[in-house]
Known about the structure:
Shape: globular
Low-confidence stretches: none
CATH class of the largest domain: Alpha Beta
Mean pLDDT: 93
Bound molecules: flavin-adenine dinucleotide
Structural class: alpha/beta
CATH topology of the largest domain: Rossmann fold
Number of domains: 2
Number of strands: 12
CATH architecture of the largest domain: 3-Layer(aba) Sandwich
CATH superfamily of the largest domain: Nucleotide-binding domain of ferredoxin-NADP reductase (FNR) module
Strand order of the largest sheet: 4-3-7-1-2-6-5
Helix content: 25-40%
Amino acid sequence: xxxxxxxxxxxxxxxxxxxxxxxTVKEAFYLTPNMIRVVFAGPELEGFPAGREGGNxxxxxxxxxxxxxxxxxxxxxxxxxxxxxxxxxxxxxxRQELSIDFVAHGDEGPASxxxxxxxxxxxxxxxxxxxxxxxxxxADWYLVAADPSAIPVAAAxxxxxxxxxxxxxxxxxxxxxxxxxxxxxxxxxxxxxxxPDPHVPSAAQEGFIRSLRWPEGRVQVCVAGESGVxxxxxxxxxxxxxxxxxxxxxxxxWKIGLIEDxxxxxxxxxxx
Length: 272
Ligand SMILES: Cc1cc2nc3c(=O)[nH]c(=O)nc-3n(C[C@H](O)[C@H](O)[C@H](O)COP(=O)(O)OP(=O)(O)OC[C@H]3O[C@@H](n4cnc5c(N)ncnc54)[C@H](O)[C@@H]3O)c2cc1C
């Protein structure tokens, strides 16, 4: 353990709140043609909370060729690295291994670029995680919808559901080969929609959801992905279907044409 990670660990213990960890890559591989799984391991994961799959975290991305030492100093004293929001996909407490799935959407995004070059021994900064996004499962049926960026939260939610849960899960992916095996209850009907260019606005999820025969009873919703899609679905679910706020997790995870900081700003002023 480096001096920096020791200081960060002590700060976490003393302050009782998560400070940044400097995580080390154990392995990185393509889970599907457009999704990279990065597995982190090592003593910096000491004390990582279990059961946070689906919760989000902030990743701090090193510059290309930056040394671990220089990055560690930057995490502590600035200038601050680029930060991006991701999801805890899996945490194996026994092996102390954390998996995060990155959409491989090209080299112009620092996080996507970092993941597509990641190899054993690489590092990044990590803050969080939050609580899981959906923790209560007492509805009559469930509606889950996700584009690739939200498959981690959707999959974690489906995996946490009671095994007798019923409902529909809609995934919009770039190619048929991007379908993933997800351990979901048998009563969840899964549909995989193909949208070859994620930068072209898509109405496929909205069209599919509007065409659903809406079952009787209370529905709980977990929907996330591109902001334009989310805006349309938010209106439909809240106004037309009157799904209550307590039963809804809905969030824009990125927006076509905006980097994350611009997207977050647009959200704050109600434009995304
Ligand atoms: C709560 C939360 C959880 C998230 N969890 C995950 C996760 O687990 N895995 C994951 O991959 N993403 C996740 N995201 C989305 C991720 O934060 C954004 O995609 C982010 O913009 C990626 O950063 P970047 O540096 O790669 O690209 P940026 O520098 O932010 O953007 C560069 C360009 O790429 C475009 N772009 C960004 N994301 C995508 C995309 N998914 N597909 C196509 N083009 C894109 C932008 O519009 C922009 O033009 C999450 C977002 C939130 C809010």
